[in-house]
Amino acid sequence: MNLEYFIAKRLVTSKDNKSSISAPIIRIAIAAIAIGMVMMIVSVATGVGLQQKIREKVSAFNGHILISNFDSNESDTNLTPVSTKQDFYPKFNSVEGVQHVQAVASKAGIIRTETAFEGIVYKGVGKDYDWVYIKEYLVEGRLPDYSNRLNEEVVISQFLAKRLQFKLGDSFNTFFMKEGQNKMPNSRRFKIVGIFNSGFQEFDATYVLGDIRHIQRINKWNVDQVGAFEVFVKDFNDIERIGEQVYQHIGSTLNSKTIIEKYSYIFEWLRLFDFNIIVILVVMILVATINMVVALLVLILERTQMIGILKSIGASNWSVRKVFLYNATYLIFRGLFWGNVIGVLVLLVQQYFGVIKLNPENYYVNEAPVYLSFGYILILNLLTIGVCVLVLLIPSYIITKISPVKAIRYE
Fold first, then answer.
1. For residue range 318-365, what is the model confidence (pLDDT) as tens digits?
2. Is this prediction's pTM over 0.85?
3. Residue 76 to residue 122: CA distance in whole angstroms
4. From residue 87, how far is each of 92, 101, 240, 250 by CA, in Å?
């Protein structure tokens, strides 16, 4: 039998321990560890969740890598067409990690009604378009089918629908300006079959998704000419490496840009969350460790006579230290248990009920997203246990300075 563990267990389960002077200090230490674990779990879950959600939304409307012609146009519209007769289309087999390639084209337009007008970007898509990224944000209606004849059906954002007082099934006129001066704009009439809400106002206030063949006709492009190609990768963490390889394989006449480069201001902002998470983890572990050090010192002082008796019957300093380290570890586990339970419950409530709301103008989402994974929760627990136990070795050293004779006489 492990003698040190046996003594530590008796100390923990002793009734005198619950009414001792150290009882409130022990409760505070357990509460500090529990609160610290809740804060760490929530900060990691919300920080990583927000990063992933924003990346998903940016990718849904732009792909992970955008391939287009070289031009000075920095807007979302395409002026120079690209031929679909490319080695990388429709399958980008030359670069490992590419999941899907789709052809798109964008053109600026104006939606006009009897009472209002709104500037938009009409994004034309074809039969190769993967709607799975937009389907998640569909709140009304259905997704259009562009695999057969020319289609007037479009998907519009809830933001634009409210501003223009549109509802599902309504039709509207859109005007597209022609190149050159003093030319009458092209007019197209579209029908709303779906309404989406991504919560990303930069896109919701801009994009209308429709048939790419309308842009090809307006711009007088051939059927094998499009505005750009959107490339999706299997693992977002490899986007920069894959982006470089894509650039090398598309030829000198085309340019490629990852969404990290295109929306650098968004991803620079997201990187700040990594720093904030690290700061929170360090502070919470530091607070928990300080409380455990105080609790251990109080336990040692309170059991001074017991330490003297153990030493007088032949127990080594390390053996006595192990008794109190076992005791402190038990308190750490109690705090971690309640911290994990409360932290996971908070995340589940947020995940299913969306209690905490966010301003989409500032955070690009309507509610705080959470990333719940038992992998990072396990790492946080192991990190907390490891740091606390290592730090507690220092105050436990005071046991080696306690004289058995003086300790037995200690009142």
1. 888 888 888 888 889 999 999 999 999 999 999 998 888 888 777 888
2. no
3. 10
4. 7, 12, 21, 8
